[in-house]
Amino acid sequence: MTMLPQLFFGYFAAAIIILSLLVITRKNPVHSVMWMLLLFFHIASMYLFLNAEFIAAIQVIVYAGAILVLFLFVVLLLNLKDELETDRFIGSWPVGMLVSIAIFASVAAAMQSFVLGQKGNFTVELVQRVTHTKALGKLLYTEYLFPFEIASLILLIAVIGAIVLAKKRMRSH
Amino acid sequence: MNDLMALPLSFLQSLGFVGQLILILLKIVVVFVVTLLHVAYATYWERKVIAHMQLRLGPREVGPYGLFQPFADGIKLFFKEDIIPATSDKPIFYLAPVIFFVSALTSLAVLPFFDGFVVADINVGLLFLLAMSSLGAYGIVMSGWSSGSKYSFLGGLRSASQVISYEISMGLSLVGVMIMSGSLNLSEIVRAQHATVLGIYALPQLLGFFVFMVAMFAETNRLPFDLPEAESELVAGYFTEYSGFRFAMFFLGEYTGMLIMSSTATLCFLGGWTIPGFVTNMLPFLHYVPGIVWFLGKVYCFMFFFYWIRATLPRYRYDQLMAIGWKLLIPIALANIVITGTLKIMGWI
């Protein structure tokens, strides 16, 4: 029984890596999106595994339910015949691969000197007792209210930008 | 009924982990079978209701009063030839109805049918329902795209934009319920409702209830918002190219979706398996009626409402549909959140 968490984590970690590779290597962009949907569900399960049920649900609602559907809209309107004949990667992909391998190596090297930080007030038992949503909401709207408001302001600016870009009449004036 | 169930239940619990597993599997089988029977008779009931509203008789040939009609339909669909279009994208064409049907069935796991009977009593039940309904949109879009037919494709695109737009107002309309009950767990929401004076949230959350009801019709692609399958324009919409059992899966998924939306409305706004406290105070004998009776009765009212609207209202135009969603429902839902939040801070609710 003690092996079970490791097995779970191992499965999800391996599946997430394999699915990410499938997403970027498919020739058909719609198939890429479908693999990405599966990937998002694995990430949500990973959050559940960490007792973060609210984040897991939001991961599915926001990423799978909204953002990925918008991807799908764009992809569906592509001319698939042209898309299937072009190469999946641009010519300089080995350079990108080298850079990412270098980043991975440096992160792996840095992991050697990793020290577990100070433990906070929120133990697993406490989070389970007050429920994850309540604990997160309380913190977000009291202690971390200022960063939360900054984040929402940034999102608001992005929304205004999108409206300005989409409104043709305003540009011609 | 509770005494009858207590003995086998305590026996299963004494078995520990394996017993719990068996108990969960039993619950899943019960919910699954009961829901599929409900789906079968929802189609029969719909045909009867609409027929009588249009001064017809409806199905009456198969069995007494046509009661075996759903089984005749099921057998016919099961043995029909399975046609797969040559221009279709095969893997996704096979996968799409499964995604649609499974996402509808998975939502059943978090619905409490009566006190204590729920397959998975999770703390984020309401969010889980929203997540599964957004997954169902993939089944529709992918079926439309993979069929390789322009009618299916247009139906799929229409449905996707409709479901995404109305999902926002549906989620926002439920925020008022979340604020009032202080929980996302559906059983907790019902208990919090029962503790209030009125016993239901439909009255204090009138705006939210209205928005939810309209969004419910759009989410399930039902009239007056059935543009994804508008037969006069798109043959049958996203499932035009499907036949046989794959078509049946869309059909089952749609009716399961209607049952789930009705159950969600019942749980969040009409007090689920409970009836208001003042009613049981006046008529004490109602205490002996099991909760499942109230729950199913309320769900049937919503299902009847689906049929009634279908027989009454014409279809909206697409720009009207989008205008209602974005310019009417979302502002109302946002106003409802502000009002409910203010009242909650003032301590009036």
Verbal overview:
- The complex is a heterodimer of chains A (173) and B (349).
- Chain A has 173 residues and is mainly α.
- Chain A has helices at 4-25, 29-49, 53-76, 80-85, 93-111, 124-130, 132-141, 145-166, 168-172.
- In chain A, α1 runs antiparallel to α2 (29-49), α2 packs antiparallel against α3 and α6 crosses α7.
- Chain A starts with a helix and ends with a helix.
- By secondary structure, chain B is mostly helical.
- Chain B has 2 domains: 1-79, no CATH class; 84-346, no CATH class.
- Helix content of chain B is 70%, strand content 0%.
- The longest helix of chain B has 37 residues, at 17-53.
- At the A-B interface, α2 and α3 of A face α4, α5 and α6 of B.
Compact overview of the structure:
Chain A is mostly helical and 173 residues long. Helices cover 79% and strands 0% of the residues of chain A.
What brief labels describe this structure?
heterodimer, A: 173 residues, mainly alpha, Four Helix Bundle (Hemerythrin (Met), subunit A), B: 349 residues, 2 domains, 13 helices
Order of helices and strands of chain A: HHHHHHHHH
- What is the mean predicted local confidence, pLDDT of chain B? 85
How does the helix and strand content of chain A classify structurally?
mainly alpha
**Biggest sheet record of chain A:** none
Oligomer: heterodimer
Helix-strand pattern of chain B = HHHHHHHHHHHHH
Strand content of chain B: under 5%
Mean pLDDT of chain A: 85
Measured by residues with Cβ under 8 Å of the partner chain's Cβ, the largest interface is: A-B, 22 and 29 residues
CATH topology of the domain at 1-88 in chain A: Four Helix Bundle (Hemerythrin (Met), subunit A)
Radius of gyration of chain A: 21 Å
